[in-house]
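[Solved] Which block belongs to which protein?

Original post:
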Amino acid sequence: MEREVDVIVIGGGPVGENAADRARAAGLEVVLVERELVGGECSYWACIPSKTLLRSAAALRAAQRVDGAKQAVTGRLDVPAVLARRDYWVSDWSDQGGADWLESIGIGLERGHGRLDGVRRVVVERTGGGEVAYRARHAVIVATGTDPVVPRIDGLAEAAPWTSREATSVTEPPARLVVIGGGVTGVEMATAFAGFGTEVTVLARSGLLSTMEPFAGEAVAKGLRELGASVRLDAAVERVERTASGEVVVTLAGGETVTADEVLIATGRRPRSERLGLETVGLEPGGWVSVDDTMLATGAAGNDSQPWLYAAGDLNHRALLTHQGKYQARAVGDLVAARALGTPEQTSPWGAHVATADHSAVPQVVFAEPEAVSVGLTAAEAERDGREVRVADVSFSSVSGAGILADGYEGQARLVVDTERGTVVGATFVGQDVAELLQSATIAIVGEVPIDRLWHAVPAFPTMSEVWLRLLEALGRRTAADASAPADSEASDADDSGARSDDAEAAA
């Protein structure tokens, strides 16, 4: 016996939830399969808990950077209160709210492990025992995400290392922590635990945040060291051992050792697809699921004649970020509905190619100390892409709003401009609270806004967004077509403030 429904979604994280929601909103009958908690990795072991663990110490540091406020901040971070706040945000690891939401909008929930079993067929090994089979009239959307990679280092597996799950669900921070990996997870968790007072050592094979502009990783390394962490670059780990006393000894190339209470592995992610049944539809088990620009799984049996299998989120390896996965999910949910109902795909807000999931402007925020954010291409990537580019670099010391936000504010901004097209193709900001600057850069890139038009996007004074004016000035004065527009000057900005700050003088 098998039950027939319109759409089956395997994976109940944010990506699966969004895909199911869009398909259901169009009137389709949807069943969502989740083996753990509705809300997935992001809600319980990644984005939400990690950012709540980071926020309290960041707020304390922010207060300590403002004269008048720092005198009022006399205590230490209340770590138990931080952990309790984390518990609130993850609902004490209960997904009842998510399950109730699914029921309220008419989406069926199957708790268990879902796997493909041929074209349009899904078998669910139910958590409580037994199996049930479903057949999809229109589509199966797989959104099972990824798991942490545990590298093959001598003794590591036996040493019971932490992954991001153990780090974000910690109940008592260790006195000493070694973090292996210099990417986003490693950097953020090192920042969080250093904020708790843990003695942190970061071991990175190269620089930190190697996919960003070099100055971002350099600033974050400096920030971690100022928090008391040890940052070791070009560090190759040869062996890890858990001693009889419970300590972890990490041996580096050359024989040097680092001893800690726990070791966190943050060296990347792998697809959660080993038991997904991909081989039953002609795909390679255990790997990433390749997709076209509509998120349709390429090479899957039956997809050429009548599209049915889609992969959204981390599993397709296009951009391993929750917000990008949700973007893909919204688009593919609309596409599945349009194809199922026979409505023109052009009626969707995504256009004729509904789920193109444009990845030319992928925003990313690293909640480190300081924050590092980027979107689009780095200067090196743009050049490798064969573009003629100009790069504008400015310090946030030229922005009055930054100086008002924090005494002695340090930070840097960069725009990468395609000179042939006259548009921004990349942006990077580093500094306190720069995350909220990222959307404006994303819009500029996605909208292909000409530089000449950006001059007319006037930033309010005195805000951090004035960095855009400084960046445009670094690129050069207006074009001849724009020369008639009145020019702003740093001097007039300072006059408007009522008092000429050191930052304004530096800008002038």
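(Second protein starts here: sequence line, then its structure tokens.)
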Amino acid sequence: MPADLDLVFAALADPTRRRILEMLLEDDMAVSDVADPFAMSLAAISKHLAVLSRAGLISQERRGRVKWCRLEPEALRAATVWLESFGLFEPIDLDRLEAAIDRTLSAPLPEPPAGKAD
């Protein structure tokens, strides 16, 4: 696996960084706005942003006195191609999955065996 893929997968391994990427799907954000939903210091968020930036998953630019973050979805392309090369990831039919879950949840519970005492 190339080094850049190592950086991408290492960055994606952390739930805080994945959440930051989800937030940036909506629009560019100031670093302070990225930090708002998290119960951690601005310095800690800045470290997460540095990891994402080194992996090429985000870019940062200064606009006046504010530092802005932008999602760079192209960085995920190599990781996606690498994963798809295994051929194990078929598209999921979410309607069928939901129906199967509904059937499982609505099925009656099995009766305990007769004659067994607790």
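Accepted answer:
You had them paired correctly. Confirming on the second one: The chain has a mean pLDDT of 85.
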